[in-house]
Amino acid sequence: MAEYKNIMVYVETAEENPVKVGLEMLSPAKEHAEKVTAVVIGSGVADAAKKVAEAGADQVICVDSEDYKEYNLDAYATVLTQLVKDENPEAVFIGGTQDGKDIAPAVAAKLGVGCASDVLAVKAEDGEIVYTCPLYGGTVLEDVKIASTPQVATLRSGAFQKVENPSEGEVVAKEVKVPEDVIKAKITESVKEIAETINLEEAEVIVSGGRGMGSKENFALVEELANILGGVVGATRPAIEDGWVSKIHQVGQSGKIVAPKLYIACGISGATQHVSGIMNSGYIVAINKDEDAPIFDVANVGIVGDVMKVLPVMIEEIKKI
Ligand code: FAD
């Protein structure tokens, strides 16, 4: 017997496709609700909505309009809030992406309800949902119950698996208009080049470099290894602050929370604020010259050595495969 009658899942799209976490959230929603109502908002998103229905949502409400071509907090939060009022779900799940972290508190505030952030697990207790959330950069996990209906929660990418053998739901097109005066800020220009080539949250392989790489020139080895593995470059905050790579590469508490199949950490100490962003990785390889570095506590394989010696050998050997 499911705890809730209806859970709404807001599925963000990128390049007209549902993002990974959007589909992942369908599983905990299905586990705890009799009906899962997904919401897709955008322009040209009918195909994305169909993919969400195929991924296991019972119903997908598709709000497809030129008005929603670009993400706009005021517009999207207003549409989603309206749909919550229409559909009356007991909970609303939103992916913990950059936009998701923006929209979730806005929707919760508009509805005057509670919001749990960065949820790692969803379980049931006495007919209610309990959300497990990290505290202090992931050193402590707390279980949160939200004493309001509906409840809003952002779910972490990679923390849940997609629905196995889903049955296809239906897509319902809906028009929701947002009054002009609601839009307080408009995007005048968006620079797509960087965002399109770097998608840490969806990457299957990430090679990250830290302060131990020593310089921007040395950091090229991290980029080379990522390239030959078909992966994405990540970095710690100091590597970014030193100007070796741009902020978009930052992994960790104040960067991106990632869940690749393989994470290679090069010259990274393993500070809590970094490690909290990589804990959902499938397999972690760490290279550090200090055998006591905390990164080895979370690594599946640890290589004690100088990155400037280890990385060229790794690159050479992988090229032979
Ligand atoms: P260091 O801690 O300096 O470690 C460098 C490592 O490289 C050392 O372990 C050293 O042994 C090793 N090393 C040195 N030379 C070599 C060599 N030649 N070969 C092999 N190994 C070598 N950090 C993040 O990464 N992401 C975040 O999102 C983030 N958010 C933060 C938020 C807050 C509020 C705060 C306070 C901090 C945050 N930080 C974040 C910073 C974090 O606390 C650490 O300072 C940072 O992660 C350390 O980065 P690092 O491992 O590159 O550098």
From TrEMBL:
Coiled coil: none annotated. Transmembrane segments: none annotated. Gene3D superfamilies: HUPs (3.40.50.620), TPP-binding domain (3.40.50.1220). It comes from the Bacteria. SUPFAM superfamilies: Adenine nucleotide alpha hydrolases-like, DHS-like NAD/FAD-binding domain. Belongs to the ETF alpha-subunit/FixB family. PANTHER family: ELECTRON TRANSFER FLAVOPROTEIN ALPHA (PTHR43153), ELECTRON TRANSFER FLAVOPROTEIN SUBUNIT ALPHA, MITOCHONDRIAL (PTHR43153:SF1). This is Electron transfer flavoprotein subunit alpha/FixB family protein. It comes from Anaerostipes amylophilus.
